[in-house]
Specification:
By secondary structure, the chain is mostly beta strands. The protein is about 10% helix and about 40% strand. It has one domain (about 35-365): Glycosyl hydrolase domain, family 43 (Tachylectin-2, Chain A). A hairpin with a 5-residue loop joins strand 9 and strand 10. The longest helix has 30 residues, at about 5-35.
Length: about 375
């Protein structure tokens, strides 16, 4: 016969288990209901096909029943609860994470961004039962020739069982920013940069915003801003070096661009290459996204009248866009934007948003 002491101990243990479970549920629901300043911001291009175009690109309200974005940087349980209780939101990280790039590996998502005070290349990963995932430094050690503090717009290309990172970094002893490359076996990092000099470094100007593109034939290219141009060049089979000819794709020649084209990203749709880019001053509400249609990853490219996605009362200066697909093959765009009129530092933050993109009559539509 079990003694009363043992019975009381068993009841106490069961109560502890119940309390832990209840506390966990409370934490999950609290996180799910927690609001952020980004929750009322939904990004959408309002550009219909050219034959019916009547309005400028804008941000708008979410469409009824619109699906929320993949759980970039947020656990699946919390994402599902927040969607069920408050509806979908385009915000996936309501804080400063400029120039985001999302890599999907199986069912996991990794979001990389421009440097912070705490990381050369911050990486936000989906995970964790009770919160919004975790952040780390995907590139804890810079090469000897570069200098910390200006590591911009990282991007990652899977090559076999490895991952290759391209990023902009300041050349030591100068203010010049050039491209470099690192590799690793885990998308979380650490990536290792063994270079003795830049991957691309134009004389007297900067090379920034690298973005890889893999064509339907499997050949990979790197796009970036080279001085005042957006250029493209083939990559070697291992992704660690540039080969072939570098070709200019775009120059700033539309009034809205303010003399700046940068942040290239390319997607394929039915054999046509759509080259998206950011234009104008990055720290202003004039910053916006345009696009061109290219015959090949190295051009020629025909710009479309822009901007395709511009500021609105809810969000300002959208840019730094990149693209990825979810597990079902649906196309998404990740980008940053200032919100609620707080444009520029120190008061503003370039928050991360994810919106779906589809093609209607050959015209890309976001939102």
């Amino acid at each position: 016969m079990r003694s009363p002491v043992h019975g009381r101990a068993l009841i106490a243990a069961l109560l502890v288990v119940v309390l832990v479970v209840v506390a966990g549920v409370v934490i999950v629901v609290t996180n799910a209901l927690r609001t952020t300043p980004c929750d009322d911001v939904v990004l959408r291009s309002a550009t219909p096909p050219p034959s019916t175009a009547t309005s400028a690109p804008t941000f708008g309200a979410p469409a009824p029943g619109a699906p929320g974005p993949p759980p970039v940087g947020e656990s699946g349980i919390v994402r599902r609860l927040r969607t069920a209780l408050r509806g979908p939101s385009a915000a996936v990280f309501c804080d400063d994470a400029p120039d985001p790039f999302v890599l999907r590996v199986g069912g996991s998502y990794y979001a990389y961004s421009t440097n912070t005070a705490f990381a050369n290349v911050p990486v936000l990963t989906a995970g964790g039962l009770f919160g919004t995932g975790k952040q780390g430094d995907a590139l804890p050690q810079l090469p000897a020739w570069s200098q910390a503090g200006r590591n911009w717009a990282p991007s990652v290309l899977p090559v076999g069982d490895r991952f290759v990172m391209y990023y902009s970094t300041r050349v030591g002893g100068s203010d010049q920013v050039c491209l470099s490359v690192a590799s690793g076996g885990d998308p979380n990092g650490p990536f290792v940069d063994t270079s003795t000099g830049p991957l691309a470094c134009p004389a007297g100007t900067d090379a920034i915003d690298p973005s890889p593109f893999v064509d339907i034939d499997g050949r990979a290219y790197l796009l970036w801003r080279h001085g005042s141009e957006i250029v493209s060049q083939p990559l070697s089979a291992d992704g660690l070096s540039l080969t072939g000819e570098r070709r200019a794709l775009l120059v700033p020649d539309q009034a809205w661009e303010g003399g700046v084209v940068e942040g290239p990203s390319m997607v394929d749709h039915e054999g046509r290459k759509y080259l998206f880019y950011s234009g104008n001053a990055w720290d202003s509400d004039r910053y916006a996204i345009g696009y061109a249609v290219c015959d090949t990853p190295q051009g020629p490219c025909a710009k479309q009248a822009g901007p395709w996605l511009a500021s609105s009362p809810g969000a300002q200066g959208p840019g730094g866009q990149e693209f990825f697909t979810d597990r079902s093959g649906r196309l998404w765009m990740v980008l940053h934007a200032w919100i609620h009129g707080k444009v520029g530092y120190p008061d503003g933050r370039r928050n991360v948003f994810v919106v779906p993109v589809a093609f209607v009559g050959g015209v890309p539509q976001a939102g």
